Amino acid sequence: MSFRRARARLRRAAKMTGGKKRPAFERLEDRRLLAITIDTFDTLQAVQDPPGTGMTSSSVMAAEAIGGRRDMFVELTSVTGNLSLASNLFGMPLLEFEKGDSSTGTLRVTWDGGSSFPIDGQDETSYDSSPASEGSFVGGDGVGATAYAVAEVITLSDGSMVTVNAVNVNGDVTAFTIDSTNSSGATAGDTLTQSASTGTGTDFQLTVQDDNVEFNRLDPDGLGGIDLTEGGMNYRFTLRAGADLDGASVAMTVYTGAMGGTSSSASVFIPNTGGPLGPTISLPFTDFAGADFQSVGAIVLEITGPEATDGQLDDLIATGDWGSIHGLKFKDVNADGQYDPDLDQPLEGVEFTVERTDGMGFEPRVAFSDANGEFWFADDPDTPEEEGLPPGTYRLTETVPEGFLPSTPTIVEDIQVEANLEWVAIDGQADPQKTEQILDANGDGIPDLLFGNYEPGSIHALKFKDVDANGVYDPAVDQRL
Q: Which residues pair with 137 in a beta bridge?
């Protein structure tokens, strides 16, 4: 198999990342607490379609893939060129795609539990023919030959029974067709395009390479109606992707509802990275019109792009976001315990600690207010170590800086963090893509995430003996007492 640019691209990607596949991999693994993995492409698989071969396909058992199996299809529709898909081909767990020069066609990956597709390496079924009937056969060159026809019931690799009509011409089985519908999805008239045979006359052995039946038939309910939202926590697909040309895109189709009765598609452009994996891209569930992501039966991914496009995909998941807390620290100029943006001033560098109080195990985290007085415990794409908070119950505590006194409570208890929900102190702190923002942390009507401090004042006095009794302190005459 020729993936002529893939090796060079992988070497370039490895050099750029210091030999590592993805710097943020550990973070992704941590976040899998709130995600359903569709595929991370750890299992070796490759399929290629050069000119003149028709659609080629592959199916493998893949523990990392949803449903436990992955199907690949490539079909070249141009006269020249080459199409290929490969997973973990060079020891790099990602999906490689390649469209050769002047190549057009289909690059598709499906996840439907695999029940309608034979597994690579388990797809050869051999049988000995029963006595065949002798007849006449005229080949394409018009020359007659002795032929033996047989209708044989065989068992395909998925366990289904099928009747095969085989024709043995002078010891060479040159044509045969499936005669009846079977559970693999093959139907009458499908041609098995590869075979091997031995023997002559009425006694011959036929080997059916049944992965060359056109099993490009999806089981729309093969995943059994899985809830990709995880009870409403997940709201989008994300994946990492990169291509070496502009214009490449990923289109995803989901089959949802009872028995996969509804299909809906959405697409997103793949960034031009020169080929290696790029940033995470997102496909919100809301882009799939009419889809019920609480009951998904099958998922299809198709890659499109201009001729001569190569690229990579990885880390395809259904995910949401952890919740977050955003607060504001201010100098309460009049010490009234209320934030007045026209009077009060931001305080920078004040320490805040968040702790989980529901016994689920969580290392306390610390954040400091910035020059605008804002602090947060939330995802920050520019700072990978800054993450949101998993759903749970939290306590937020202020460490009051030296020289100040609090004008508001320094501890906020029972903050209920949920997926995709952001607690904020003032409007505008939340990510507009999140589903909800709440200004009151624990529902008691107090703006709990506004933390005020004030600098205490002082009174200084002087007691003196007013020698001349004039009521005015004269240090040259009066005496201190």
A: 145
Kindly report the average pLDDT of the chain as a whole number.
72
Residue pLDDT, tens place only, 128-148: 333 333 333 233 333 333 333
Strand arrangement, sheet containing 249-256: 56-61, 69-76, 105-111, 296-304, 249-256, 262-269
Same-domain pairing of 398 and 430: yes
374-377 and 392-399 strand pairing:
unpaired
CA–CA dist 81, 145 (Å, integer): 38
Range of the domain at 395: 324-454
Beta-strand relationship, 324-331 and 345-346:
antiparallel
Q: Is the distance from CB of 205 to CB of 129 less than 8 angstroms?
A: yes
Domain contains 479: no
Separation CA 181–CA 166 (nearest Å):
16
- 257 and 314 share one domain: yes
pTM metric for this prediction: 0.57
CA distances from 17 to 24, 222, 243, 279 (A): 11, 38, 17, 13
Has residue 357 been placed in a domain? yes
Q: Is residue 33 part of a domain?
A: yes
